[in-house]
Amino acid sequence: LQVFDDEGKDVTPHPLFHSDPNAVVPRQGKLSSAYFGAPGSVFLSSSSMQQTPGVNASLEQKRSRLLTSHNFSDVQVRQEEVKEELTKEDLDRRVDIYLTETETIWILDVPSVVVSVESEDAGRVLERNRIYADICKNRPGNDRFVEKMMQTINGAAKNKEVQCDKIIMEDKGMMVTSWDLYDSFNVSEIEPTSKAEGSRATTGKSSKSHTTEKHNRTMSISSDRGSTTSSIMISENDVLARIHEEEECHSEAILTSENFQQDLFFMERILMENIFQPKLAAYRQFPVLIDPDVTSDTTVAAMKEAKQEKHDKEKKEKEEHKEVFTDPSILLDINKTPEEIVPPRLEWLWSYICDLTNGNSVSSMAWSKVNPDLLAVGYGPFDSKEQKKGLACCWSLKNPMWPERIFRCEHGVTALDFSMANPNLLAVGMYNGSVAIYNVRSCNDTALLDSSDSSNKHTGPVWQLRWVEQDRGATGDGKKERLICISADGRITEWLIQKRLDCTDLMKIKRTKSEKKKLPGEKERKSEVLISRWAAGMCFDFHPKDTNFYLAGTEEGHIHKCSCSCNEQFLETYRGHKGPVYKVAWNPFSTDMFLSCSADWSIILWHQDSQTPILTFSSITAFVHDIMWSPKSASIFAVANESRGEIWDLSVSTLKPVVSCFASPRVKFTSVLFAKNTDCLLVGDSKGEVSVFELQNLAAPNSNEV
């Protein structure tokens, strides 16, 4: 058969193998033809069979016809299936089949930029990455790294033509004489002459120039050129002045930029820490380190002299206070001789004061509940006759010379306190009866909330203000924080913080009649006529364990024990003071005892179960404005009299303070505050200064009972 395409060409397939007719075909075995086959037996089945000589002859004839055929597509060879059982030898015979893999052909090979952590090069790659990261980290500001320029291959240049307007060139020249230069450079120093002098000068010039026509024309041209040059130089001066103004504006923009202000802030912190390092170390009760670089003879001599002066001063104080510690009971407790006893004293460290606070009386102080280095100080008028604007400042130990935050108030600040649940909130009470809440995290001095719009706001000064945590009880778990205030209008209020400030009354302090005993033979006194039903509230303090109970001091000199559950009557009334009660304070360790101070020059120690005072302390004839128990001892408390600050230790003496510090002339102490984590005392005065003192040689007793 022959196959022709459409163009008449012979495309008949040719056989790939031509058998030799003279070659003798070897006889196939039983399994050779089944598994491997003879050449050209690709169409035969691969099953093994047992063939007879007659069947083999027919297969050989068919195979020869197939190999000599010219058209494989029309030939079909069918194998006759011969069913015959295989012998045991055929089944046990071993046949080996080998499979081999061809060579891999890579079509696309992209090198990887990552390495598996299980590979051999993983450790080396990780080490190189670490070295590179260290180099990049230490590169800024390191002298071992320098910037170096190198030449790289320039990119292929590309020319691009554009069409533009024709550039017109023009030459211009000018002749300038020496007097033109002189007049131009000194034009700013020459004062303008009067019109009369100008007219006379013009007349003189014109009379002199009327000699000839040529000379006149020359002078006119010269004057025109001079005026042109002067005008050009004047315009240049205007440009220079404008450039100078722009530079000043640019400098002012740099000085007022946020980044520059932040850099100055950090620099100021560093300088303050360098200056106050010994004082801050003493405040935190750390050893004062001496700079090892200071090795000059003058410095060493000065240090030795200072140590000698300090030693002489301590020796002198020891001699002065020797008589105070001669009680045998005290010597028995401390097991020391009078010569070995070092008296306690107050060492001044620094003062929080600046030009902004100078002259404003310190009305209250409060530590941050979270940050023990942040102190809030309220400044208000000490005398009610001189009313002016107040301040609330937040001071930090990192900068004792300028406050971190300054909040300017329209009225004098009388009380303030930090929140425990939200440490960034500072509540401030003012002399006009308003209450404001500020965010100390914000640099904006605008109040977040203000009670000026509240219909229930106080009508008298807010003398004390505190955030109080109380148990939720059956309503929920945890504690709820409330803002409590006491005011001169006779109300103790709880402020609700929502979209605006509003309050509810916990108690209205009613006036109580004085209980005076009638003497024998004395006539019956007339009943007192009360001007107002309500007594002015001055201070309060909640019980340290059960915040449902609290004490309230009044202007009458009475102290009322009240309950948050009952707002109609007092639980107890303690009568002992003859003047306004300025402060009451529960003992944090012995919670049945509390102190009170008054304008009657006295301090009274009370027990809540007794209406009779236990002890009365009075050291000088002066108002006692503030008291505070020590946070480390049950028998130590601080007092702020008008003329001095005192530390009392009931375990040592109940007659006199153990240590005192005196106020400057015409300055009065107004408030005291113990430091949280250190043995230091803060005292505020009427000049606006908060002095920080270190309590030295004051051993707190181990007992927690008074």
List keywords for this structure.
706 residues, alpha+beta, Methylamine Dehydrogenase, Chain H, four-stranded antiparallel β-sheet, 11 helices, 28 strands, 23% helix, 24% strand, extended, cytoplasm, WD40/YVTN_repeat-like_dom_sf
Describe the structure.
23% of the residues lie in helices and 24% in strands. It is of the alpha+beta class and 706 residues long. The protein has a domain at 347-362 and 415-471 and 479-510 and 531-696: YVTN repeat-like/Quinoprotein amine dehydrogenase (Methylamine Dehydrogenase, Chain H), CATH 2.130.10.10. The strands form 7 sheets. A 4-stranded antiparallel β-sheet has the order 1-28-27-26, with helices on one face. Helix 5 packs parallel to helix 7. The radius of gyration is 53 Å and the shape is extended. The termini are far apart. The model is unreliable at 28-82, 193-230, 295-299 and 317-334 (pLDDT under 50).
Fold topology:
Layout: H1 32-36, H2 53-67, H3 88-92, H4 122-138, H5 178-185, H6 195-209, H7 213-255, H8 258-275, H9 277-283, H10 297-320, H11 328-334, E1 345-352, E2 361-367, E3 374-380, E4 390-396, E5 405-409, E6 413-418, E7 425-430, E8 435-439, E9 449-450, E10 462-471, E11 479-487, E12 491-497, E13 501-508, E14 537-542, E15 549-554, E16 558-563, E17 572-575, E18 581-586, E19 593-598, E20 603-607, E21 615-617, E22 624-629, E23 636-641, E24 644-649, E25 659-662, E26 669-674, E27 680-685, E28 690-696
Antiparallel strand pairs: 1-28, 2-3, 3-4, 4-5, 6-7, 7-8, 8-9, 10-11, 11-12, 12-13, 14-15, 15-16, 16-17, 18-19, 19-20, 20-21, 22-23, 23-24, 24-25, 26-27, 27-28
